[in-house]
Amino acid sequence: MKAKTVDKIATIILYMISFFVILLLAAFVGYIIYKGKDSLNFKFLFGNPKIDEPGGGIGPQLFNSFYMLIISLLITIPLGLGAGIYLSEYAKEGKILNFIRLCIETMASLPSIVVGLFGLLVFVTMTGWGYTLISGALAITVLNLPSMTRVSENAIKAAGAKVKEASLGLGATQWQTIKNVILPSAMPQILTGVILSAGRIFGEAAALLYTAGMSAPVLRYTRFSLISKASPYSLFRPAETLAVHIWKLNSEGIVPDAGKIANGSSAVLIIMVLLFNVIARIIGNKIYKSYSGK
């Protein structure tokens, strides 16, 4: 067969595979949203859950998911980005660097249930905090830190190869080059790591079962503020997230309409992930364009 014919066949096959992946994702998202569309209303999104009667909401769990997202990213991004900068710009090749990379790869391969048990031992028991939001955030950080570090390291290396020597040649210091030239150029790839970390936070249940707990304070909305006897903004309180709530509904099934609530919660969760991905991409592209002058 001629090279052009083989190239066309390969291109068609790859297009078909790509289309199948997109179709599979669309079918998956569409099915989840269709099953839970009846619950997508204000009362369900901001109402409190009920134990022995139907019609409960997911207000506390939704709040906990966003709160867990913010706290976890505030811990993960500086640590992961700092580790990526060190490995790509400051660390020298050798046994120490190889050992660090081995530790990162080992952490990346840990099952979430193992990290949850580690969090139960260290963040819950040894610290004396109990089942708290900060314990869950630290456990999620342990899960997300390896991927965030690897993505940051690769992004900085790829971006730095083009602009590092030019910046240094113009008299900039190494830190000025990293801060003002390399990091903005690597922003789209770094943002990919942030999105992956956020998806893990939204969807993780196993690690949070043993660290953040399976209960949530009842939140009450007033005209001016969000009030709760358990202080919803405290880091040292139980924080059942939406993914844990879905697991509990499907495993215990105490609530009369557990299936309906679980379907609605799943639809909300998948919509949250999609919205976060789109918003993060838009913000990342604007930051990149502002630095690159495009």
TrEMBL record:
Predominant subcellular localization, coarse grouping: membrane
Keyword line: Cell membrane, Membrane, Transmembrane, Transmembrane helix, Transport
Protein's UniProt keywords contain Glycoprotein: no
Transmembrane keyword on record: yes
Domain called ABC transmembrane type-1: residue spans: 62-280
GO cellular component, one term: plasma membrane
CDD domains tied to this protein: TM_PBP2
Chain ranges passing through the membrane: 12-34, 66-87, 99-123, 266-284
Listed GO biological process terms: phosphate ion transmembrane transport
Pfam families reported in the protein's UniProt record: BPD_transp_1
Subcellular location: Cell membrane
Membrane topology category: Multi-pass membrane protein
GO molecular function, one term: phosphate transmembrane transporter activity
Gene3D superfamilies listed in its UniProt record: MetI-like
Superkingdom as given in the UniProt entry: Bacteria
NCBIfam families: 3a0107s02c
Family: Belongs to the binding-protein-dependent transport system permease family. CysTW subfamily.
Name of this protein: Phosphate transport system permease protein PstA
Lineage: Bacteria, Bacillati, Bacillota, Clostridia, Eubacteriales
